[in-house]
Input
Amino acid sequence: MKNVFIIDHPLIQHKLTMLRDKNTSSKDFRALVNEVSMLMAYEVTRSLPLEIVDVETPICMAKGHALSGLDVAIVPIMRAGMGMLEGMLSLIPNAKVGHIGIYRNEETIQPVEYYCKLPSDISKRFVIVTDPMLATGGSLRDAITLLKNKGAINIKAMTLVSTEVGIKEVQRLHPDVEIFTISIDEGLNENSYIVPGLGDAGDRLFGTK
Ligand code: PRP
Ligand code: URA
Output
């Protein structure tokens, strides 16, 4: 699939199995989401532009690379996307953070927006929107639409578990947005939960069920 990157590093795939395990506690689940997000941040930021700079080593002057200008904004989709924030920030500590609140109505499965607060210079930033679950795709699709309406141009999406149908739904409106994920699962069940998935990510992260 174009613009979709599956990060299949062994460390990540091992941790994904632990995330899927229904016996993993909230404490461990949170830690694992953090660790996987940190590892993924490495790949998602691969296209950040570099410039050549001078550096004086203890031995001599040399040329080195430095990130050039393009600042990062991380935008979790609340709630579950918040679980990916700390891991991302540990690798990109200067990033600004925006928040988008979207939940899925349990009966209609349609996304409902309830909050949006973004850095004022979002249009100039390399925006990484995070949400562990890409199921029907409605939540991520609408979050990206919101970001674009607020001026964001350079947007990447980072999810943990995705479905093909969800990816297609996001790409229907946003073919320009690269999606980084660690698994494309079999599909959705009758309640639009991902199969095999890992259950309700928000509830598992925050211990609400
Ligand atoms: C989950 C998940 C995504 C959405 C995915 O959020 O974190 O945002 O569902 O489903 P979709 O692709 O079908 O839209 P949820 O509605 O459970 O809200 P929460 O994170 O606040 O628990
Ligand atoms: N939201 C979740 O948290 N899990 C799913 O499988 C689908 C939507």
Notes: The chain has a mean pLDDT of 96. The chain is about 30% helix and 30% strand. The radius of gyration is 18 Å.
